[in-house]
Amino acid sequence: MCYDIKASLEAQLNRARRRNDLQAIDEIMERLLPLTDLPIYHYSGFSHPEILIYTDRSPDFPEVATWGLIPHWVKDIEQSKKLWNNTLNARGETIFDKPSFRTSAMSNRCIIFVDGFYEHHHFDGSTYPFFIYHGSGKPLPLAGLWSEWSDPDSGGVILTFSIVTTTGNTLLSRIHNNPKLKGPRMPVILLEEDEDDWLQPMEDELDKKRIEKLIQEYPEDELKAHSVTRLRGKEYPGNVSEISEEVIYPALKEQFGD
Predict the structure, then answer these.
(1) Cis ω for the linkage preceding 184 (within 30 of 0)
(2) Which end of the chain is more exposed for a tag (fewer CB within 10 A), N or C?
(3) Rounded to 5 degrees, what angle do the CA atoms 100, 43, 240 make?
(4) What is the pLDDT of residue 258?
C-alpha cells in the first residue's frame, strides 16, 4: 500500500521544471504553495495532507488537492469523512470496477510527484519503517485518480485524490510483508515517458487497455530503500527533515545487513 510519503516542493515542481516553465513555477510558489502542507518530510495519508497534483484537465499546471478521494456521489460531509480513509489508495486491478473509483479511472487521472514513500516491515512481533526512493534521487511520479465533490450544504468544492497501487516488486516483497495482506503492494510509479499517456483522455476500449498496461510494478533496480526512525507512537519525531535518514536496527541485520 502507500499511506506514508515524502514530498518536497522541489519534487512537486518536477514537471514544471522539466518543461522550463518559469512562469508556472513562479505562480505555483506565489499562489499555490501557501495552500499546501509542503514541505512534507513524512505525512500519513490518514492526516489528509494538501499537496499538488497534475490532473488530466490541467497537465502542465498543478492543482491543490486533499489525499483521500471523495466520489462525486457522496451525499454529505459526514459520509465523506467516513469514506475518505478507505480511498487513500486505489487497487489498480479494480479501478474500473469499484464504484468509488470507476468514474475517476475513466476520466479523472492525475500524477503526484513525491521524493519517496514509506512502508513497514514486520519482524518478530515488531514493525520497522523503510523509506523507498529512486536510486538517482529524482522524484517518483505516482499514478493517481482525482475527484471533485460539491458539499450540498456549504456549496464548497473539494478536490481530492487517491494513489493507484499494484503488486509489489521484489524489493517491496522483502519489505512490505504485512501478514494481514494477501501479498506485497506498491504505488504505481510511472516511467517518465508514460506520464503523458496516463493523463491522455480515454475514449474507447483500446484506450482502457493502454491505461491498464501502465499499472505495473516499477523496476526494482531503479529503487533503493533503507530503514528509518519510527513513524508511529511515542518515538515518532513528526514532520522533520531528518526523518528519512537511515536508522540501523540490529534486529534486522541478518535480513537487510550488508
Answers:
(1) no
(2) C
(3) 170
(4) 56
pLDDT in tens, 24-76: 999 999 999 999 999 999 999 999 999 999 999 999 999 999 999 999 888 87
198 Cβ contact list (under 8 Å, min separation 6): 109, 111, 143, 190, 211, 214
DSSP string for residues in 183-218? S-EEE-BPPGGGHHHHHS---SHHHHHHHHHH-SPP
Phi then psi dihedrals of residue 75, to 5 deg: -80, -40
Q: What is the pLDDT of residues 122-148, one digit of tens each?
A: 988 889 999 999 999 999 999 999 999
pTM: 0.95
Candidate from 90-94, 98-102, 175-179 with smallest mean pLDDT = 175-179
Q: What local confidence, expressed as pLDDT, does residue 256 receive?
A: 73
Three-state SS letters, 12-79? HCHHHHHCCCHHHHHHHHHHHHHHCCCCEEEEEHHHCCEEEEEECCEEEEEEEEEECCCCCCCCCHHH
Q: What is the Cα 186 distance to its own chain's centre? A: 10
Reduce the DSSP state of residue 113 to 3 states and report it: strand
